[in-house]
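Lecture 7, part 2: worked example. A protein chain together with fe (ii) ion.
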Amino acid sequence: MNFETNKDVLDWYERQERSLTDEFIGAIPWNEVKNHPLDDKFIPVLLYMRDVETLTDMYHRELLRTPTGKDPYISKFMERWGVEEITHGEVLNRFLNEAGYETDDDWQNQVRRDVSTSYNATAYLMMLLTKMIGKKFTATHMTFGAIHEMEAALGYRRLMKLADHPVLTHIINGIIREESVHAQFYRSVARLELEKNEFSQKMARWIIERFWAPVGQGSLAKSRTEYAISVLFAEDEAIDGLEKTVTQRVRQLPGFDGITKITDVISDMAGHRPMEAEAA
Ligand SMILES: [Fe+2]
Ligand SMILES: [Fe+2]
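Predicted complex, written out as structure tokens:
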């Protein structure tokens, strides 16, 4: 798709229908969840994904205070995007409950309260940079968003395959359809913003090379990120998928040719040997 303005991207987004409608959620065979085995090792991964989804609105509120959030098309997108991510968290929580893993009625507030202090430090740094750089920082925000959405979609695809639970597969397929739409939005706006000037490209690349980390790291305990990544990306084929569906797409963005950061960070966290060592 070739968009010329952020408005074009928003118009496209608004034409996409939600996958996780009330009808979709109501028709999920919840009472069958218990009939299929679910390996315990996936519980912390599901909780991690649930919490990442839930914390989206915190990030959303922060972004609204920046020039990026003042872009009328991006802020319009973010309103619906925030709602969609919250639904993802809620559906995952219900799945956990149906699978026999009880959660507190107040779980959403608990997740928000437990945000790690390192998150506040990073958020503060981002806020300072945003204030200094202003509108040109939008390209960085959008590139970050694009990478997070693509990584999340792949993480879900991995979980679906490894857990091999029919009801979870059905739910995740719905989530992935929405994540793919989000990724397309962010990627398209990132491209438009990056194309505007070389400064935006240099800035975005510099920030991502230094600060990019898997989605959720920084707001949730690092050990939880490491656990989720090590379960989902232990196999070589997962790293191949990451390279093809995330890193190679990031390389197509203006100013990002040759980037290896995403594959490097995740393969390292998942315990793979560095690529050079394998080649040698
Ligand atoms: Fe999501
Ligand atoms: Fe998303």
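The two ends are 40 Å apart (CA to CA). The pocket of fe (ii) ion (ligand 1) is lined by residues 53, 85, 88, 152, 175, 179 (CB under 6 Å). Keep this in mind for problem set question 3.
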